[in-house]
Recover the amino acids of this structure.
């Protein structure tokens, strides 16, 4: 699993700086985009985990392998 903690911290620091500096529309857009990206990532992660669990419960090895491969590519 990739660790994006450093990148996320740098982006958060940049946004905080821009917001403190002035009401910068670019900073507001950046914050909105970060929120959307994080929401989408959380949704996709949850969806993959649920589908993988379902494949395990049904003992569907082909589907499990397919979903696991997709999930690992998604994580990068």
């Amino acid at each position: 699993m990739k660790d994006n903690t450093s990148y996320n911290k740098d982006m958060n620091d940049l946004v905080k700086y821009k917001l403190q500096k002035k009401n910068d529309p670019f900073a507001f857009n950046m914050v909105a985009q970060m929120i959307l990206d994080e929401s989408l990532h959380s949704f996709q992660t949850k969806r993959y985990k649920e589908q993988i669990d379902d494949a395990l419960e049904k003992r569907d090895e082909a589907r499990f392998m397919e979903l696991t491969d997709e999930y690992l590519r998604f994580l990068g």
User: Anything to note?
Assistant: The radius of gyration is 18 Å. Residues 42-76 form one domain. The chain is about 85% helix and 0% strand. The mean pLDDT is 85.
